[in-house]
Amino acid sequence: MNRNKQNTAVILIYIIGFTIGTISHSIDIIKMGLLGYTFAPFILNAFWSSLVFIDPLVIILLFINFKTAITIAVLVMIFDILFNLIFGLCTLNYPILLGLITQVPFGIFVFYTANHLLRSGSLKDYLNSKLS
Predict the structure, then answer these.
(1) pLDDT per residue of the chain (132 residues) written in tens, 0 to 9
(2) What pTM was computed for the model?
(3) Where are the domains of the chain?
């Protein structure tokens, strides 16, 4: 795989991951309504509901404000994993804990790649750069 293809693959993984998040939270809102996570404290309910807007925002920002997109991606993954893990363990909410099976590897990927991505000023710069 040449450098450009590797960089493209990294961006595609971000897009796929945040698209899955968008779809997941959209399905929840369709089923339960906005702020429908009533089983959780309001702050978690609001955070999880807000991801239906924040996840696609990350994707859009990849194209128009690359560094902001990567920063938000890192923050979303930190808080989503942390909140899901703490709430899931404290309440033994198995569906939330099961969600961590995919969230944690994606989060690790985001954390691992973020520093390198932040060295580029734009998506175009990153896609045309060589990996170091």
Answers:
(1) 455 899 999 999 999 999 999 999 999 999 999 999 999 999 999 999 999 999 999 999 999 999 999 999 999 999 999 999 999 999 999 999 999 999 999 999 999 999 999 999 999 999 998 755
(2) 0.92
(3) 3-127
